[in-house]
Structure formats: structure tokens, C-alpha cells
From TrEMBL, chain A:
InterPro entries cross-referenced by the UniProt entry: Bact_solute-bd_prot1, SBP
Keyword field: Cell membrane, Lipoprotein, Membrane, Palmitate, Signal
The species this protein was found in: Bombiscardovia coagulans
Protein name in UniProt: ABC transporter substrate-binding protein
Record Pfam families: SBP_bac_1 (PF01547)
Automatic annotation (TrEMBL), chain B:
Coiled coil: none
Organism encoding this protein: Bombiscardovia coagulans
InterPro entries in UniProt: ABC_transporter_permease, MetI-like, MetI-like_sf
Membrane topology category: Multi-pass membrane protein
PANTHER family, per database record: ABC TRANSPORTER PERMEASE PROTEIN, INNER MEMBRANE ABC TRANSPORTER PERMEASE PROTEIN YCJO
Predominant localisation class: membrane
Protein name in UniProt: Glycerol-3-phosphate ABC transporter permease
Length: 417, 331
């Protein structure tokens, strides 16, 4: 009996040791760094990260980078990890390194590559005292993505669309040709969230923006946006399969020359091109009610290091390696945005001509992402949901604005208490 | 002492030590004694020692049920965002918010539709199928298996399969409509349609469970009562209504309570089929908790809704159980 007890105790000890080893991030002399990429399996983005990682591991045989692919619940996953005091060593901060994750991330302003940062996007990336918490791969310069083929067929010149009235006329022309004017999907908060985030800066004037920043939400001002979407929905501009459309369905519509406009960042062109490599896409600025058309800019793919990581040194070494121009170029080539660091050439792919025209020739102004400057952290999904309600007719302009106001005040109170 | 007498009464030694063993233990002890073996009483099973066996179950209960419940109730009085350390006590503010939340009324209504709608459909279909497949018909075992099979599939998989049936582009149903010359329908565009689809798919998945419960009831039914009724001239509908149905009351109670609880906390099916949309119009309370917790970063408010759902299910189940117990007694 005693012998059985000893055997059982020994077995328990071995099992406990085994599980404890699994909890740690280093096995023997090799350090393992967990990197939550938030990129789906098979995407060009993850493939680029794999290429960079292989290079890093061959140069640093004592460090292993465990790339964790993304799911469609990336944001929930990271929040659960943070709540459980178990963050990954590195994670993709998907535009929220400062406003959401700063408490959990190692400040990076003292890294050697920090002086190569371009100023574009500072408003949403750095704190007032110049601190920042992630290595940005690219800076989004987002406007309205369009299918050049269908616009040409319908006789629409995107360069002439400088107001929402002109945009409406373009939509009518597309509709009369049997082409879906605008595509979106409720299956991911992105398309509807971006729709709101891109249009809202042009709804507010300076005084109203200041008031919003101070914490006063005026539903009447916001209704300029909700009325616009509601009217587009009533006019039948959105894809008829909207409620069941996945991101792939939307990409297929754009790729097959059956849709005109898509309010999404340039990186989404990768998915569209995967269905039709010959698709011709362009980029135009967003019309404004209160001024000139503009592009929306801010942090896109960026990587932060957990300040509580047990392998922080190894993680920071990997981040420094990623920041090297040739590695950063690998990523920027597939993100189709402006590079965030000097020494890396922007690779906007087929958006290059329209980007050059609008940004370099016409000097179109850029504004920071609306929600990250003027709304409390956590509003993006409410913007997306209320926009979904408007497109499907479940909400009218006033009730959608009321819904956003409720969420705004609730989150503001949460932050101030 | 006869063998059967010895095995049904505890041994004097066991009684004197305050340990009333089971019939099986006594039989084993008796056998040992008969074989002349030196019997060692089960000292490890005495008194408090026996209670040690409860500990694993109690630990699971405390860690996975009691602690989260108490913790959830505690969080419902805070403004926690769900991931940061900081949180403050806000009293009943989250519970008050439920009363002013423009979406909440619709979501509670949806939850009752999912709970009651699924329960009603599953009782009618489950009972009909049980009656049909209780009869001696060819292939009934295979048919029972086919009807029960969806209950073995994860609701997420079931939801995805039916999503492919109802989706606009490449959807099986729209392909059928197109084949007969009709135009496609955007099934999920309408909140009413979407709620109905969720109820139907959930019912299809779990109708097999109700069928099995009713089949078990039918097979354990006292045939003497049925035969006596037949001798008295009862047949067909009369026999079903006056004999079969009342005798199935215990099965009915079990099936209703299980289906009702499942329907009231429906999550996966809603998430996969509609994601709670259009807007918030097809959310159940469970899916809304997820939305509020993660999307709106209001874990405190989500916890308050969770507490509300806990008591809602507890009260509804208690009321239904009480009502149906009366039915059992009357039967």
C-alpha cells in the first residue's frame, strides 16, 4: 500500500512539473516568445510574418517565435488574456496600442528605430509626451475604395466626386446599370465600423468636434451621418445579400465587377484580388459636409511587447529585427498603405496612381481616425451595430443616434469614474 | 442463518461500528467469512471518511458554479470594462440601465420566443415521432438514429450548415427557388424571419432528445392499464388522450423543462445564424451579454444581465416544474 502511495505521489509530482514547464516561456536554453498575430491562416500578412520569423530564428537559434494565427474573435481573445493576467509576449495591437493597451505594453520610444518614425498618425499613436507602445508597420491612408472598371462603364469620374450629392448621383448611375453601388457586411464589425469612422469627420465642424471631445454628444449633429446611411439604404444602394454577406462575399462582388464602392482600408484589396487578380481598384477621398474631401489616417498593423513578459528581452529583440528596413518592407508590400518608418518604401500597389494624384498632387488633407480621437475606447462596435441597424431598416436615424449617445455616455462615465 | 437472510441484514460488527454497509458489501463479507478468510472491515469507509468522496464533486461545483456566480454578482455592481484592472463600485446603476436600455425589451421577448417556441415545436414533433417510431414499423431503429443524430452535432456546426441553406448567395434554399423560376429571398433581412429560422433550426436539432424521452415513457408505460382501456372499448384518439398522454406526464415534464432551459439560454445558434442582427433584433439575452461584455466593454453591465438571466431561468423553471408537478399528480 505504501509503495502504491509513493508511486502515486511521484506520478503527481512528474505531472505537476510537466504542467509547470508548459506554463513557462522558456525550455532549457531556448526562449519561446508567443506572438498573437491576429492574422488568419493563409493570408499574405501571416505569410510575410512567417518569412520574417524564419529569418530571425535562423539568426537567433536560442529564440523561438510561436506565431499564433488569428480568429474572428481576436479582440475578445486578447481581452480575455489581459483580464486573466496572461497576455501573450507580443501581440498585434490593431490600431489600439495607445488607447486600449498602453497599460499592458512596454513603451518603445527609446528603441533605436524610434527616430525613423514618420509623423503621419502621431495623433492616434503617441501620447502627448511622445510615448508610444508599438512598432507600426504601416499607416492607413483610407478613403473610398472603388472598382475602376465599373465606374468607367457607368461613365463616372471618381475625381469629380467631391460631395455626397455627387456621390449619390454616381450611385444612381451604377444602380441603373444593374451594379451594386455600395457593399458592406454585418458579419464582421469592420465594414460598418469603417463606414461610420470614415464619414463622421466630415459631419462635424471644428466647434462641434471640440464639444464632442469635451464629452457632449449632440444627437442632432450625429443624425447627419445616420440620415445619410438610412437614405442610401432606402435608395437600395447596398448589396441585396447584405445581411448574409460575409467579407468573402463582399470581396467577390468587388472582384467580379458587380459593385462600385467599398468603405474599407487598402489592405482589403488583397482579399478582392485573390478572387480576381486582374481587378482594377482605385482610391478616392471622402466627401465632407463641412469642408474639403479628406483621407482618414491612423495606426494599422502594429506590434507591442507585454511589459510583464518573462522573455521581454527576446521579444524586444524580435521587434527590433522586424523594424529593420528589409523586414519591414516585406510587410508593407502586402499592406498596401503608407510605410510608418523611413527607409521603407510605401507599396500601395494598384492604389499608387490614385494615391499619388490625391495625396501628392492635390495635397488632399488627412484626418485622424474619428473614433480614436473623439469617442471613448469601445465605441467602434456600437458604430458598426447602429450602422447595421440603419442599413437593415431596424433603426431610424434618430434611434441610431440615440443608441450611439447611450454608449458614448456610458463609456465616458466608465472612464471618468 | 439462511443465505438470503444473511445478505439482507447488516452484520452485527458493522452495526456496532456505526457502519451500515450495502447489501453487496455484506454479501462480499459473508463470502469471505464462509471461505474462512480473515476479513478486514472497510475502516476507510467509516463515517467522515466516506464524505471525502464528495470532495472532488464539491470542488468542481465551487470552482465552476458557486465562485463564478458570486463573482458575477459582485461584478454586476461595478463598472469594470472587462480587461483593465480598474473598476469602481456603482451600486445598482447596471440594473437601472437594463430598464432604460432601448434594446433590452426586444431581447427579452426574443429569449422567450426562443425558449417557448422551441419547446412547443419540440414537444409536438417529439411526441408525434415517438408515437410513430414506437410502432413496429420497418427501419424504425435507423429512423430513430437519424432523428437523434443532429443532437450529437455541436450547435455551432448545425448553425453553419443551416446558414448555408438560408444565405442569399449560394444558399441551398435560394438555389431551389431559382430552379423553379422564383426570385431569391434575403431570408435574414427581416428580423421576424430570422427569429423564426433560429427557432426552427434549434427545434430540428433537439427534437430527437424529446423523441427519446417520450419513447422511454411509452416503453415503460404500464401495458395492463392500456390493455384494460382497450377491453373497455377505448381506441384511437380516445385511448391516446385519456390513457397515453396522462401516463406520459413525467416524460412531458422532463422534456419541457430541458427544452425550456436550453431555449432560454440559446447562444450558439443565434451567434452563427444571424450574429444577433439585423442590428440587435435577433439577440437572445445570452448573445447580448457577449455583445455588451466584449464589444461595448461593459463587463459590469453584462454581469448584471447575466444575473437577471440566472434568476429568470430559475423562476421560469420553478414555475413550470410546479405547474407540471400538479399535472403529474393529477395523472
Amino acid at each position: 500500500m505504501k509503495r502504491i502511495r509513493y508511486v502515486a505521489a511521484a506520478l503527481c509530482g512528474v505531472l505537476a512539473l510537466g504542467s509547470l514547464t508548459a506554463c513557462g516561456s522558456s525550455s532549457g536554453s531556448k526562449k519561446t516568445v508567443e506572438f498573437m498575430t491576429m492574422q488568419s491562416i493563409g493570408t499574405p500578412q501571416l505569410k510575410a510574418l512567417e518569412t520574417i520569423t524564419k529569418k530571425f530564428e535562423s539568426k537567433n537559434p536560442d529564440i523561438q517565435i510561436k506565431l499564433v494565427p488569428g480568429t474572428n474573435t481576436n479582440e475578445n481573445d486578447i481581452k480575455v488574456r489581459l483580464a486573466g493576467h496572461n497576455p501573450p509576449d507580443i501581440w498585434n495591437t490593431h490600431g489600439w496600442s495607445r488607447d486600449r493597451y498602453a497599460n499592458f505594453l512596454e513603451p518603445l520610444e527609446n528603441r533605436s528605430w524610434a527616430k525613423r518614425m514618420k509623423p503621419l498618425g502621431d495623433d492616434v499613436f503617441k501620447t502627448k509626451d511622445g510615448k508610444f507602445y508599438a512598432l507600426p508597420a504601416d499607416i492607413q491612408v483610407s478613403g473610398i475604395m472603388y472598382n475602376e472598371t465599373v465606374l468607367t462603364q457607368a461613365g463616372i469620374d471618381p475625381k469629380a466626386i467631391n460631395s455626397w450629392d455627387a456621390f449619390k448621383q454616381a450611385c444612381e448611375k451604377l444602380k441603373s446599370k444593374g451594379i451594386t453601388p455600395i457593399v458592406s457586411s454585418p458579419k464582421d464589425p469592420g465594414p460598418n465600423g469603417d463606414l461610420a469612422d470614415y464619414i463622421l469627420p466630415g459631419v462635424y465642424n471644428e466647434a462641434q468636434l471640440s464639444s464632442l471631445k469635451r464629452g457632449t454628444f449632440d444627437t442632432k449633429v450625429y443624425e447627419a451621418y445616420t440620415s445619410l446611411i438610412s437614405q442610401w439604404s432606402k435608395d437600395g444602394y447596398f448589396n441585396v445579400d447584405y445581411t448574409s454577406a460575409t467579407l468573402d462575399d463582399v470581396a467577390r462582388l468587388m472582384a467580379s465587377d458587380k459593385a462600385g464602392f467599398y468603405f474599407r482600408s487598402n489592405g482589403n484589396a488583397q482579399l478582392i484580388a485573390s478572387y480576381n487578380p486582374n481587378v482594377k481598384l482605385g482610391l478616392m477621398p471622402i466627401p465632407s459636409n463641412t469642408g474639403d474631401p479628406y483621407f482618414s489616417t491612423g495606426e494599422d498593423m502594429a506590434f507591442g511587447v507585454s511589459k510583464t513578459s518573462k522573455v521581454k528581452d527576446a521579444a524586444l529583440k524580435y521587434i527590433d529585427f522586424m523594424a529593420e528596413p528589409e523586414n519591414m518592407q516585406e510587410l508593407v508590400n502586402i499592406l498596401m498603405n503608407d510605410s510608418a518608418l523611413t527607409g521603407v518604401t510605401s507599396a500601395l500597389g494598384q492604389f499608387e496612381p490614385s494615391y499619388n494624384y490625391w495625396v501628392n498632387e492635390r495635397k488632399t488633407k488627412t484626418v485622424p481616425f474619428f473614433d480614436r480621437i473623439y469617442l471613448p475606447n469601445g465605441m467602434y462596435n456600437t458604430l458598426a451595430k447602429s450602422t447595421d441597424g440603419l442599413i437593415t431598416g431596424q433603426l431610424n436615424p434618430q434611434s441610431a443616434a440615440d443608441q450611439v449617445k447611450t454608449s458614448f455616455e456610458s463609456l465616458k462615465n466608465q472612464k471618468s469614474s | 442463518m439462511k443465505d438470503d437472510e444473511r445478505t439482507t441484514s447488516p452484520s452485527p460488527s458493522a452495526v456496532s461500528q456505526g457502519n451500515i454497509g450495502t447489501v453487496e458489501e455484506e454479501r462480499r463479507l459473508g463470502d469471505h467469512r464462509q471461505a474462512g478468510n480473515k476479513v478486514r472491515p472497510h475502516s476507510s469507509l467509516k463515517g467522515a471518511s466516506v464524505n471525502l468522496f464528495y470532495i472532488p464533486a464539491l470542488v468542481v461545483l465551487v470552482v465552476f458554479i458557486i465562485y463564478p456566480l458570486i463573482s458575477g454578482i459582485g461584478l454586476s455592481f461595478t463598472n469594470w470594462d472587462g480587461y483593465n484592472e480598474a473598476k469602481s463600485f456603482v451600486g445598482l446603476a447596471n440594473y437601472k440601465q437594463m430598464l432604460t436600455d432601448a434594446n433590452f425589451k426586444q431581447i427579452v421577448v426574443n429569449t422567450f420566443i426562443y425558449g417557448i417556441g422551441s419547446t412547443v415545436i419540440q414537444q409536438i414533433l417529439g411526441l408525434a415521432l415517438a408515437l410513430l417510431l414506437n410502432a413496429k414499423i420497418k427501419g424504425r431503429t435507423l429512423m430513430r438514429a437519424i432523428i437523434y443524430l443532429p443532437a450529437l452535432v455541436a450547435p455551432v456546426i448545425m448553425g453553419i450548415m443551416y446558414y448555408f441553406v438560408f444565405q442569399y448567395q449560394q444558399g441551398a434554399l435560394n438555389a431551389l427557388l431559382a430552379a423553379v423560376g422564383m426570385s431569391k429571398v434575403a431570408w435574414f433581412n427581416n428580423a421576424g424571419f430570422s427569429v423564426a429560422i433560429i427557432v426552427i433550426v434549434n427545434s430540428i436539432q433537439f427534437v430527437g432528445v424529446s423523441m427519446i424521452i417520450y419513447l422511454a415513457g411509452l416503453q415503460t408505460m404500464d401495458q395492463e392499464v392500456v390493455e384494460a382501456a382497450e377491453v373497455d372499448g377505448a381506441s384511437g384518439w380516445k385511448k391516446f388522450w385519456n390513457i397515453t398522454l396522462p401516463m406520459l406526464a413525467p416524460s412531458f415534464t422532463t422534456s419541457v423543462v430541458l427544452n425550456l432551459i436550453g431555449g432560454l439560454k440559446l447562444y450558439d445558434m443565434v451567434k452563427v445564424l444571424t450574429g444577433g442582427g439585423p442590428g440587435y433584433s435577433t439577440n437572445s439575452i445570452s448573445t447580448y451579454i457577449g455583445t455588451v461584455y466584449f464589444d461595448n466593454q461593459a463587463a459590469g453591465y453584462a454581469s448584471a444581465i447575466g444575473v437577471f438571466l440566472f434568476f429568470l431561468i430559475a423562476i421560469v423553471t420553478w414555475l413550470v416544474n410546479k405547474g407540471l408537478a400538479k399535472l403529474d399528480w393529477e395523472a
